[in-house]
């Protein structure tokens, strides 16, 4: 818009400047005296005949009573008629020293400039042919060429940006499509991956740009999905295996009882065995439901302050019924005011699991120590045994459901592999964590860490 305005002003100035130059030349050719105005162009060698891209400048000099004194060659008849009308409209100046009045008009396709020169004190006498009371000079030119140039300029400033924007849009579209081509290829690969095809991965280049990072991140997501799916499938298989054993035992006992009539005592003994098996089955089902529940679905229990030292002493008294209670050593370094936010039931379940595992996997007459202490922010409860220990590669899998070490399977120690998994889940729910350090042949140390109450 600025370019158009500046160029349009330049065109108008050039168009009018040529006419003004011709007008000034003709006015200068007139000799203004006290009583008359003389027009003697031959004495002044007037040469007027502008011809540029706007076309010729027409001019005419009109004397007294509308007399045509002189005019340009090949003058247009319409211009002559328009010039005489303009001459009648020009007002006569009152003082020759003032700037003469220039009348600028637009009529149809013509642009005109009119200026009049008059004698200060004209004397109405018989005059020579070149003497006049006043002279009116009219110059003009057709505006058609100028309007055509302005029209082309308007087309230029309108179409050129549109063309530039169109080319930029097409080029930008091509560049964007070229840049997003790897993304489109990756999208097609992603759409072709079936919902059960967890082994499929996206193929991408190794250019080191954002596309490579995107492809790598998506493949890592697929790896995590595959790991989660395999874990879920293994979880379901192990759960089915663990449930099959007590159900098989129940069915076997029922079939045996139905083979022949039994005494009341036999029925009662069998029912007691079946109730024991059913209780174990119920515990397994509840544990599976707890582990299968996501963190979002889990309802956070209502935590309350628990004085850890008194609670630990009370909890230790509940272990007196264990056959290996005499092997247990309690080393409490807790202060009386040691408080954690927890629920006694969940906290007891975690510690019971750790202590009973230590009894299960260590030999009789070996010490199982429960040590408790605090730091600035946390309370720690360690359960240390002198069992067979574990290989370093087995420790990261300890808290996965149904995991059992090779040593435990070799020794035939009974268990479902769910205890540590649910203990870890409860510790996380309480804002804590369970860690394990183990050395083969020397035993293991399980550490429960819980934040202190503020």
Short description:
This protein has 454 residues and is of the alpha+beta class. The protein has helices at 2-29, 41-44, 77-89, 144-192, 210-258, 264-292, 308-317, 344-361, 406-411, 419-429, and strands at residues 30-32, 37-39, 51-52, 55-56, 58-62, 68-71, 102-107, 110-118, 131-132, 134-142, 304-307, 328-332, 339-342, 368-374, 378-384, 433-439, 443-451. The chain has 3 domains: 2-142, no CATH class; 210-292, Helix Hairpins, CATH 1.10.287; 304-451, Histidine kinase-like ATPase, C-terminal domain (Heat Shock Protein 90, 2-Layer Sandwich), CATH 3.30.565.10.
C-alpha geometry? rod-shaped
For the record, the CATH class of the largest domain is: Alpha Beta
Largest sheet: 5 strands, antiparallel
CATH topology annotation of the largest domain: Heat Shock Protein 90
Protein described:
This protein is an alpha+beta fold and 454 residues long. It is 48% helix and 19% strand. The protein is built from ten helices and 17 strands. It has helices at residues 2-29, 41-44, 77-89, 144-192, 210-258, 264-292, 308-317, 344-361, 406-411, 419-429; strands at 30-32, 37-39, 51-52, 55-56, 58-62, 68-71, 102-107, 110-118, 131-132, 134-142, 304-307, 328-332, 339-342, 368-374, 378-384, 433-439, 443-451. A five-stranded antiparallel sheet has the order 6-5-10-8-7, with helices on both faces. A five-stranded mixed sheet has the order 12-14-15-17-16, with helices on one face. The chain is rod-shaped. The chain starts with a helix and ends with a strand.
